Amino acid sequence: NVESTDLAALIYTSGTTGxxxxxxxxxxxxxxxxxxxxxxxxxxxxxxxIISTPMFHVLGFNDTVxxxxxxxxxxxxxxxxxxxxxxxxIAQYHPDFLIMIPTMYYSTLTQDNFNPEHFRAMKYVxxxxxxxxxxxxxxxxxxxxxxxxxxxxxxxx
Length: 157
Known about the structure:
38% of the residues lie in helices and 18% in strands. It is of the alpha/beta class. The protein has a single domain (32-149), classed as Rossmann fold. The protein has a three-stranded parallel beta sheet with strand order 5-6-7. It has a two-stranded antiparallel ribbon with strand order 1-2. It has a two-stranded parallel ribbon with strand order 3-4. The longest helix is centred in the first third of the chain and has 14 residues, at 27-40. The protein is globular. The two termini are 22 Å apart. The model has no long low-confidence stretch (mean pLDDT 92).
């Protein structure tokens, strides 16, 4: 028998302040985290999300995979991050929601095929996983795109 409080996964921190630490996530914490994002960003079965961040990290799993699947939406996987390829995927799939780390946004912005219209069409464009880079936020804002800064701790499942 599996209880909601049982260990579901051990997810490691990035180790920015020392050695990476394994954080115990219960089934219950995954459900609560997924539901929180789902409700905050109004996910529904019509939502389409592209995931470019690793699914073994909370940013990819908790903030993208879980809320999309819990709402019955569509999840498009990018096997390995590549800014040019992601811009092509955004043009093809028209996602509603995108969450990445700041350097990934920089990579999309600096590609020849970057089209701000595709980003403006998204409901939510979010950065997390590391400190926001003002130059990237300003560059996107110049194109009329507001990148929301997300904050969370792996250590707080």
